[in-house]
């Protein structure tokens, strides 16, 4: 089973952390959207986060959504939601395991999010495209590398591809973008 994970197009946040805030996506570059749609190829079934930015991205790429799943929504950053990026706390001295366990006040940790997301991904039996968030992609990558998945850069409108081998998960590609002209 092949799992493709597409992060939504650039969120319109005014330089602020979106997390669970329902913000729009900038899907205005039709050339990049067309390239990404070509890169995706046959998506299999398409499951989308219910976030507006994900639904807009799926529509801009002409994807036929089989359904939405609230379990694959982005991490809830609690009191950090809506903060300017430069005002977010610096967690740089923490290990990946400590960062994964860190829970912002009123929110959830990466570990909490993976506990919500991973059962949904592991239950898939058919080739699937998930249209979701950077956190969702990192949660999927944690199936292979654990909390070190937090070190991956996941660009807006990027594609990550994994395969369930039957005895575990393998990563085929991470953070493929249409601007780079890559194809899986």
From TrEMBL:
It comes from the Bacteria. CDD domains: HP_PGM_like (cd07067). Transmembrane segments: none annotated. Gene3D superfamilies: Phosphoglycerate mutase-like. It holds the Pfam family His_Phos_1. This is Alpha-ribazole phosphatase.
């Amino acid at each position: 089973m092949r799992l493709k994970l597409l992060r939504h197009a650039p969120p319109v946040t005014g330089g602020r952390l979106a997390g669970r805030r329902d913000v729009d996506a900038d899907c205005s570059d039709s050339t990049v959207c067309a390239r990404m749609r070509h890169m995706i190829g046959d998506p299999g079934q398409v499951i989308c986060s219910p976030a507006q930015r994900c639904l807009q991205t799926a529509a801009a790429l002409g994807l036929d959504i089989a359904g939405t799943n609230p379990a694959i929504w982005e991490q809830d950053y609690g009191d950090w939601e809506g903060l300017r990026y430069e005002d977010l706390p610096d967690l740089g001295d923490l290990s990946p395991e400590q960062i994964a366990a860190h829970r912002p006040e009123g929110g959830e940790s990466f570990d909490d999010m993976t506990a919500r997301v991973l059962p949904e991904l592991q239950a898939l039996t058919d080739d699937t495209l998930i249209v979701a968030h950077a956190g969702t992609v990192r949660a999927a990558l944690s199936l292979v590398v654990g909390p070190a998945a937090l070190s991956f850069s996941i660009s807006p409108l990027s594609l990550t591809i994994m395969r369930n081998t039957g005895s575990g998960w393998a990563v085929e590609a991470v953070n493929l973008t249409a601007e780079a002209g890559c194809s899986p």
